[in-house]
Amino acid sequence: MASPPSPQSKLLRVGIIQGDRILEERHVQREDVTIGHDAKNTIVLPPSDDLPAKFAIFENRNSQYQLVFDDTMQGRVNLGTSEVDFDRLRKQGLAQERGTNYVLPLQESARGKVDLGDITLFFQFVTPPAASERPTLPPDVQGGFWRTLDRGFLGILS
Q1: Whole-structure pTM value
Q2: Cα torsion through 2, 7, 17, 74, rounded to 10
């Protein structure tokens, strides 16, 4: 019996490349990633006939990301031991069919790219940066409530 997927501790890094320029990069954890020309998307793309206004390309279900793609999308996914393209994922049943879309659960070792016309979306899982401590000022610089009050205002109060 297969064990349930472990909760993902890494961040999903998603980037958009057009030509040789990185247009946008996001690090997300435990949230869906939507793309399209609607301003409410996680990643807003230029209007295109190939994409709907909003498409959930990554879904977070049960603390595991899944890649969602349709018949019009091309790309490749490295699953740790092998690299497979979307056609193979569809034809060999490696991705689960859900309506007109295909869903592929992703492990933290997965990385890949999705071709969206002249735009390429890349993804991988990265270790979150270490939580940095908030810098503190020395006590003589910190000040306090009475030091920050205007002296003229203090004179009026007294």
Answers
A1: 0.74
A2: 20
